[in-house]
Amino acid sequence: MKTMQLLAFPLASALLILPSSALADDGVRIQGAFAATASATPNTGAATYCGGVALTLAVEAKGSGFSSLGALSFSLLKTINVPGAIHGCLTLTAPGGDALYAIYDGTEGVTDANGFRPASGTLTFTGGTGRFQGASGGATFTATFLGLYPLSSFIGGTSSPLQVSAYYVIEGRLSLRGDN
Questions:
Q1: Which of 88, 139, 157, 169 could bridge 123 with an S-S bond, Cβ 3.0-4.6 Å?
Q2: What angle do CA 64, 148, 113 make, to 5 degrees?
Q3: How many CA atoms lie within 13 A of 91 on its CB side?
Q4: pLDDT tens column, 68-104
Q5: What is the DSSP letter of 141?
Q6: pTM of this prediction?
Q7: Separation CA 157–CA 174 (nearest Å)
Q8: Are 109 and 130 in contact (CB under 8 A)?
């Protein structure tokens, strides 16, 4: 029995001094809510983002929110079919400039009687800068979109983009280089 105790102490000590990258890492939980505004136009230039295909509309969205990682701004480039597939690149940026990158995939639903359109999908974290360098993991998102003044946009026959308000909730796990 004493031999087992003597062997256990060096093993436990070795585990304590191993770098965190040598230990199993399931990441930290990430939760957040974001409000954004977006501009959508017909994707006549066949734009694609983050390895996706050229879908019907090209969208740029900007916003901000708060997450379990702190305050983050939200910047998204995506293409969409309405209703249907959504694919793009998302950047979440902390006030100090550290950026977290993700591939954004999902499905946009059908507009309800009041003009709201639901969407849901996944984020695949692909790295970042500063404290997010080497980030990986994933999250799910749900979103609600509302097109503003559609008759003043290309939908109504003008050349103006459709303006959209967007609200997102995300939840998942994020592994950061150096997590304990």
A1: 139
A2: 110
A3: 15
A4: 999 999 999 999 999 999 999 999 999 999 999 999 9
A5: E
A6: 0.82
A7: 43
A8: no
